[in-house]
């Protein structure tokens, strides 16, 4: 059994959201999709609410329904689905729903016509990301359908939104281009006499760097977990604190001679007589197999690079010839005194989003 432990500091999430609330005049939607980016859906949601988030955002309908089932009574938006989605359950639970196509709108209208409460709808506009949402050319036709449904009291359009492709590169020309398209979409809605409660475009990066694009609502995701996607020019991480730590322990310590091959394929060979430490965690626990010989961990405040290949449930570190490390010592993969999620991302060639989602995943977590 792996001794990998994932700990979530919910107070850090609360503090991060409060920091983000303080950076904007808009309302804040804390995005807790994908099990709160690996930090726990419900726990992250509660912590975000405590920090001042008046909305929660999730991609999948089941996440919204789980939040409702476990007691969240505030505004929730869900957005990622096709026409075959649990529209009735969402609407009856008071969840705001996004519309990216006429087919999705048709399903919502059908459920409403069949006796469900009048649904709160947000129109998704594709302003250049090429993912969810209707194009600017398609928008007038969709709004005509929406207006007809509104006249019958079958829907209530409360929002319009879009998502940025390159906000994590401040100054990239696509940001202003997409903002221009979004503003055009808002004008089209106004000309169609669609009254909007909330207009929202800003993700974490935009929340931190582009206050001119906050509109009525911002949707920070990764930043609420203390991992801003842009560099703080002041070097203070924007006042945000990472919420996840990942630890394991040393389960075996042994002396080996020079020339000892380590782990599968002997990609690492000891140069001198040394001491090896066996760590109980592997790629089945979220440790990237590609982390072998490149990623580091920390024991007793000292960094050690993984020696050779990561295995399914274990990896090895070379502790050196005069180590004081012993069996039972804690190994920090991510956390205070050890590597960060970004350190791991740099080592294996990915982004810190994937690191925390992978380590968090569906495995048990402890919360504090």
From TrEMBL:
HAMAP family: Ala_racemase
Gene Ontology annotations for the cellular component aspect, listed alphabetically: cytosol
Listed InterPro entries: Ala_racemase (IPR000821), Ala_racemase/Decarboxylase_C (IPR009006), Ala_racemase_C (IPR011079), Ala_racemase_N (IPR001608), Ala_racemase_pyridoxalP-BS (IPR020622), PLP-binding_barrel (IPR029066)
Similarity field: Belongs to the alanine racemase family.
GO biological process: D-alanine biosynthetic process; peptidoglycan biosynthetic process
Keywords of this entry: Isomerase, Pyridoxal phosphate
Keyword Lyase attached: no
Cofactor: pyridoxal 5'-phosphate
Protein purpose: Catalyzes the interconversion of L-alanine and D-alanine. May also act on other amino acids.
Catalytic reaction equation(s): L-alanine = D-alanine
Domain Alanine racemase C-terminal stretches: 243-368
Pfam families: Ala_racemase_C, Ala_racemase_N
Residues the record lists as N6-(pyridoxal phosphate)lysine modifications: 33
Pathway: Amino-acid biosynthesis; D-alanine biosynthesis; D-alanine from L-alanine: step 1/1
Protein name: Alanine racemase
GO molecular function, one term: alanine racemase activity
UniProt source species: Demequina lutea
Enzyme active site: 33 (proton acceptor), 264 (proton acceptor)
EC number: 5.1.1.1
Positions with a binding annotation for substrate: 131, 312
Superkingdom of origin: Bacteria
């Amino acid at each position: 059994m792996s001794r990998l432990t994932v700990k979530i500091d919910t107070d850090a999430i609360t503090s991060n959201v409060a920091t983000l609330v303080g950076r904007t005049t808009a309302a804040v939607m804390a995005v807790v999709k994908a099990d709160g980016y690996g930090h726990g859906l419900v726990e992250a949601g509660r912590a975000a609410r405590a920090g001042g988030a008046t909305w929660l955002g999730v991609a999948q309908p089941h996440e919204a329904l789980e939040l409702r089932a476990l007691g969240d009574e505030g505004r929730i938006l869900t957005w990622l689905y096709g026409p075959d989605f649990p529209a009735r359950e969402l609407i009856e639970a008071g969840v705001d729903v996004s519309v990216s196509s006429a087919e999705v709108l048709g399903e919502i209208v059908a459920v409403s016509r069949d006796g469900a409460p009048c649904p709160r709808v947000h129109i998704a506009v594709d302003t250049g990301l090429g993912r969810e949402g209707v194009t600017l050319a398609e928008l007038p036709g969709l709004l005509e359908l929406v207006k007809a449904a509104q006249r019958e009291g079958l829907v209530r359009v409360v929002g319009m939104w879009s998502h940025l492709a390159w906000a994590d590169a401040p100054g990239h020309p696509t940001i202003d281009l997409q903002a221009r398209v979004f503003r055009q979409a808002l004008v089209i809605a106004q000309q169609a006499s669609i009254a909007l409660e909330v207009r929202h475009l800003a993700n974490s990066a935009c929340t931190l760097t582009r206050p001119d694009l906050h509109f009525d609502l911002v949707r920070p995701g990764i930043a609420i977990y203390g991992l801003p996607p842009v560099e703080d020019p002041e070097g203070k991480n924007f006042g945000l604190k990472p919420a996840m730590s990942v630890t394991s322990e040393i389960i075996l310590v042994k002396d080996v001679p020079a020339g000892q091959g380590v782990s599968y394929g002997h990609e690492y060979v000891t140069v001198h007589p040394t001491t090896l430490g066996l760590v109980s965690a592997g790629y089945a626990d979220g440790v990237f197999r590609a982390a072998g010989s490149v990623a580091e961990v920390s024991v007793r405040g000292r960094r050690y690079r993984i020696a050779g290949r990561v295995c399914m449930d274990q990896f090895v570190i070379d502790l050196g010839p005069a180590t004081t490390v012993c069996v039972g010592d804690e190994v920090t993969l991510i956390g205070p005194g050890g590597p960060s999620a970004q350190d791991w991302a740099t080592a294996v060639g990915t982004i810190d989003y994937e690191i925390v989602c992978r380590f968090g995943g569906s495995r048990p977590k402890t919360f504090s």
